[in-house]
Design goal:
Blueprint lengths: L1 H20 L24
């Protein structure tokens, strides 16, 4: 039972480490930047 718990903890720690290793900052910019002067009243239309 303890061996299974240990293996589970190791796998979870490895999974968390991989997620942190691939972390990056993403900045999204629309194209064109002014969105053709989109009217704010219709932004979600």
């Amino acid at each position: 039972m303890r061996t299974g718990l240990f293996v589970l903890c190791v796998l979870v720690a490895a999974h968390v480490g991989v997620g942190v290793a691939h972390a990056d900052i993403h900045t999204f910019q629309p194209n064109p930047a002014d969105l053709y002067d989109l009217d704010h009243a219709r932004a979600y239309a």
